[in-house]
Specification:
Blueprint: H1 7-15, H2 30-40, E1 52-57, H3 60-67, H4 75-80, E2 83-90, H5 97-100, H6 107-112, H7 115-139, E3 143-147, H8 152-159, E4 164-173, H9 189-192
Helix pairs in contact: 1-7, 2-7
Length: 196
């Protein structure tokens, strides 16, 4: 069975898409980020909780503050990427559930009244949304460089608050020369999929 999605789009989103480590100096506009969000906001999450929060790092001062918290190998590319996004999970996402889940507003208190339950749900569902975000960046014709080599507690204190848990930092832009490493192998279908 073939996929319904056009092969060119398949290549753009998956086969030819690569993690970028170098970028051109072409800016990433607010309009591009808005278009990315307007697409990926429709990706599914449990209870439509949509806990992902995106902090765009644009100013030189904010960039300098962020770079201090990056692993040494991630500092140069974070310093030079046209746009950097901090992706975090909002552990108070449940406050939005009466609006986001109007047919089941009691989910807020029934399932998410306790902070540990919210943190588990937020981490999983924001990670799903982070993947959607990366695919959305690719759909915009840009490259993403997601990184977890970060002092997360430092980033939280510098840019967020106690209700937000940073998940990753993503460099965004047009890929530059030699932006990616050679593609690494992938596991075969029968190594991943089991039928029971």
């Amino acid at each position: 069975m073939s996929l319904v999605l056009d092969p060119t789009a398949q290549d753009l989103l998956f086969r030819e898409a690569r993690t970028a480590n170098a970028f051109t100096d072409e800016p990433v506009t607010d309009e591009q980020v808005q278009a990315i969000y307007d697409l990926v906001k429709f990706g599914p999450t449990a209870f439509n909780q949509t806990p992902l929060r995106i902090t765009l790092v644009r100013s030189p001062e904010a960039r300098e503050r962020l770079v201090r918290h990056m692993a040494e190998g991630n500092q140069p590319k974070t310093s030079t990427a046209p746009l950097v996004a901090i992706l975090s999970a909002d552990n108070e996402f449940h406050e939005e559930l009466p609006t986001l889940l109007p047919h089941f507003p009691q989910a807020k208190d029934l399932f998410f009244s306790e902070r540990p339950a919210r943190e588990r749900a937020a981490a999983l569902n924001a990670a799903l949304q982070a993947a959607y975000f990366i695919i959305g960046v690719r759909a915009a014709g840009l490259a993403a460089g997601p990184m977890t080599g970060v002092d997360f507690e430092g980033v939280r204190k510098e840019f967020l608050d106690g209700d937000h848990t940073p998940l990753m930092v993503v460099n965004i832009g047009k890929p530059g020369e030699d932006a990616s490493h050679p593609r690494s192998p992938r596991l075969a279908y029968d190594e991943v999929v089991t039928t029971v």
